[in-house]
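User: Small ask, check this?
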Amino acid sequence: MRRSLLILGLVCALPSAWGGPPALGENFTLADPVLPMVWIAPGTFLLSDPVGANDDTQVTLTRGYWIGRTEVTQAQWQTVILHHPWLKNISLPSYFSGASRPVEQVSWDMAMEFCATLNALERAAGRLPQGYTYTLPTEAQWEYAARAGTTGKYPGELDAIAWYDRNSGGVTHPVAQKQPNAWGLYDVIGNVYEWCWDWYAPYPGGRVRDPIGPAIGGHRIMRGGNCDAAAGWCWVAQRPRWPNYLKTRSLGFRLALAPARPAASPP
């Protein structure tokens, strides 16, 4: 059993050191890949619209969730994807090579395959909390966590928290080199854009609970800006969208462990 766990490399550290699921309300860390997960408590906030329309959408997230302290790195990607039936045969996709740099040049579909593989491993080991799955965050979950209680354009002073066009040198950097936001998340702005779960749609306005986006669409949301982005494209409210099959060196993802959702629909 010990050898099996070492091979899987996905045993959780405290509070899950004894092999059970993480406790709701507590941070935890996957051991290998070392992937710290931060608990985000339920709450209400305003989803911002960068173009000023429907900027009064009040979102209530009724259930807490975990989100990665950092973007998924190339080393973390490689450790999990070795267990995937066909992605394991594809060379590391990233343009900017480095174990602690964020993985990029992964499509939305590839990111979801990573999540599915991790779910299979953790489910087999009995470490998934009931009703939760590893997935991409919804854009509401992403923005709530990225803002960390702030209401401005950025969740901190831009040069202190982000790699963007004026300080990155046009390359990605190892994760967690800049200051975190108030909830301990690194690189929510800059370095690489991050895929979100949702198909793009205009904000509805009014009040919504636990939004997950439309059932079908043509483009998936990505958030957070990247190392080549100007400051205006790094606003926490910016919501560019690309096809789910797109792969580019400016786009990666951040893991969430969140309440299970309906299966993703094709474009």
Observations:
- The radius of gyration is 17 Å.
- The first strand starts at residue 28 and ends at 31.
